[in-house]
Amino acid sequence: MGSISHLPHFEGDNYAAWKAKMKSFLWAIDDKVWLAPRREWSEDERSSSTFNQRALNALFTADYIGKCTTAKEAWDILEVTHEGNSTVKESKLQNLITKFENIKMLDDDESFSDFYAKLSVIVNGCHNLGDSIPEYRIVKKILRYIPSRFMRKGQL
C-alpha cells in the first residue's frame, strides 16, 4: 500500500478540488482502489472486493451517499450532484472558458500571485470538467496581460 496522507473531507463546496484530491487519495491506497468507483461490478465482485470496500469507505466523507453499496454508485452520485449531467457540465465549461478569455490583471495594485491564483482556478476547473486548456494558451494569456512593472527595462 502506498503512502497516504489524510482523507479529503467534502464540505459541500468546491467539488472539483475535492474530486481531484479524492482521486489521488484513492489511487495512493492502491490503483485497484481508484478503479473501483469507475466501473460496474457484478454482485459476486462487489461482495468479495476489498478494493471496492476501501474506495467506498473513503467516499463516505460525503453524507448523502450512505445507502450506496458500491464505490461506483457513490462516485456517480457525487459526480452528478456536484458536476451535473453532460449538459450542465458543458454549460459550466463554457462559463469557465468565457472567464478564461476575459480574465486580466485588474490594475497595477494586483499582485501576480493573485492573478495567477484566479487563472489557476479557471484552468483547473476546465481540466476537471474534461477540457484542459493547453499550456501555450495559459502562457500567452499571462504574457498578454502582465503589467509593464513585471517586464525588464530592455523589453519595454
Question: Topology of this protein?
Answer:
Layout: H1 15-29, H2 31-35, H3 43-48, H4 50-59, H5 71-83, H6 86-102, H7 112-128, H8 135-145
Helix pairs in contact: 4-5, 6-7
How would you describe this structure to a colleague?
With 156 residues, the chain is mainly α. The chain has two domains: 15-83; 86-155. Helices cover 60% and strands 0% of the residues. It is built from eight helices and no strands. It has helices at 15-29, 31-35, 43-48, 50-59, 71-83, 86-102, 112-128, 135-145. The longest helix is centred in the middle third of the chain and has 17 residues, at 86-102. The model has no long low-confidence stretch (mean pLDDT 78).
Percent range for β-strand residues: under 5%
Our Rg estimate from Cα atoms comes to 20 Å
Molecular shape: elongated
Mean pLDDT: 78
Residues in helices, as a percent range: 55-70%
- Uncertain regions spanning at least 5 consecutive residues: none
Structural class: mainly alpha
The H-and-E topology, N to C, reads as HHHHHHHH
What is the makeup of the main sheet? none
How many helices does DSSP assign?
Answer: 8
- Structurally, the number of domains stands at 2
The total of beta strands comes to 0
Spatial separation of the terminal alpha carbons:
54 Å
